[in-house]
Design a protein that fits this description.
The chain is an alpha/beta fold and 228 residues long. The chain is globular. Bound molecules: iron/sulfur cluster. InterPro entries: Aldolase_TIM (IPR013785), rSAM (IPR007197), rSAM_sf (IPR058240).
């Protein structure tokens, strides 16, 4: 257990980006049927202690220095907030004068303890996939008691007080959110959320592409309607 994983450093908008996974295995509050990481054995929304975190923090510091990173993107195997040392991870990155981008599915952005953490990041990414309550339960299989309504309102209330850059990632899934009606609902959510940027993607994981991927033509139409 323990240890972070890194992607090779890359340049984005002229900045050197270091992408890091801070979870030893999948820990998520959802269990999406199309999750590229696989099933959620650890379906949690509370913080967990992981082994070797002090060593992992030292390693992160070395990675930042060796790669001359300018932005650290926390993109984890699940929901990064549940690492009980996430505050220390962000503090370390900020102490080096770097920008921090945090990927979350967004549900936990409604809880004070996680709002406080996300507010320390320069960029936060939230997500939208299913757009009806039934589909949310069926395909994203969240922790019991979660609702789509609360999911969206958590992100809306977070972004109302957030001073950084809020990015919304929308994933189009054939049969779930690719109809005109669904796209209009997504548009309404975008209007409520007022993100600084919207990124629209489609299911492109080889395992799910055939069943859940929309055609190029339909995807282009949806992009025209949603991207800003
Ligand atoms: S929210 Fe992301 S990491 Fe979590 S189960 Fe869904 S696809 Fe996987």
């Amino acid at each position: 257990m323990g240890g972070f994983n890194y992607k090779d450093i890359y340049i984005e908008d002229g900045k050197r980006v270091l992408e890091v996974n801070i979870l030893p295995e999948k820990y998520c509050n959802f269990d999406c049927i199309f999750c590229p990481i696989g099933r959620s054995q650890n379906k949690v929304d509370t913080q967990q202690p992981f082994d070797d975190m002090d060593n992992s923090l030292n390693e992160l510091e070395n990675m930042i220095e060796d790669n001359k990173a300018e932005l650290v993107y926390i993109n984890s195997k699940g929901e990064a907030f549940v690492n009980s040392r996430i505050d220390d991870i962000i503090a370390l990155i900020k102490s080096k004068g770097l920008l921090v981008r945090l990927l979350s599915n967004g549900y936990l952005l409604g809880r004070d303890e996680y709002i406080r953490i996300a507010n320390k990041c320069d960029e936060v990414i939230g997500e939208i996939k299913a757009i009806s309550e039934g589909d949310f339960q069926k395909v994203q299989r969240p922790i019991e008691g979660y609702t789509l309504e609360e999911y969206i309102s958590n992100m809306v209330s977070f972004n109302k007080q957030y001073k950084g850059k809020f990015i919304l990632e929308v994933t189009i899934i054939k049969g779930y959110n690719d109809t005109e009606e669904a796209v209009n609902k997504i548009k309404d959510v975008i209007n409520k959320l007022c993100p600084d940027k919207v990124i629209v993607e489609r299911m492109d994981d080889e395992k799910f592409k055939k069943k859940l991927g929309v055609s190029d033509e339909r995807f282009d139409e949806i992009l025209m309607q949603l991207e800003r």
